[in-house]
Amino acid sequence: MLIFICIYLFTITTDNQVRTAIADNGYGTPEDKKKHLFEPFLTTKAVGKGTGLGFSISYQLISEKHHGSLECISQIGQGKKFAITIPLQQQNYGNS
Predict the structure, then answer these.
(1) Short-list 28, 3, 31, 16, CA closest to 82
(2) 56 CB contacts (<8 Å, ≥6 apart)?
(3) Residue 1: what pLDDT?
């Protein structure tokens, strides 16, 4: 059986922020797994293959360094979308 996975990229800019979303038409992620996606050391790979830090580091950089947000929007059978929102004007937040 052939399964075709499509990946979509969207970018929207408003007066004060840019929002980029990367989506697919895959199987989606169950709610119980989705709530842990951004935790350190979470991996779906075999032991010794990957550190499980990718989403955690991405979340930290986007939220703490750019004062934006990273979210996963997914339902089983409906694919998955990662949405990144970053303000266009960065304020001086001290040494962060």
Answers:
(1) 28
(2) 38, 39, 40, 41, 42
(3) 67
pLDDT of residue 4: 78
User: Which one-letter amino acid corresponds to residue 93?
Assistant: Y
pLDDT in tens, 52-69: 888 999 999 999 999 999
* Token pair of 72 as six digits: 């996963």
**What is the band of 93 on the pLDDT scale with cuts at 50, 70, 90?**
low
Cα(15)–Cα(47) distance, integer angstroms: 45
Its pTM stands at 0.79
Structure tokens at 61: 């950089």
Q: How is 47-86 classified by DSSP, letter by letter? A: TTS--S-HHHHHHHIIIIIS--EEEEEE-TTS-EEEEEEE
Residues in the chain: 96
If we measure between CA atoms, which residue out of 86, 90, 92, 91 comes closest to residue 13? Answer: 86
* Paired strand residues for 11: 20
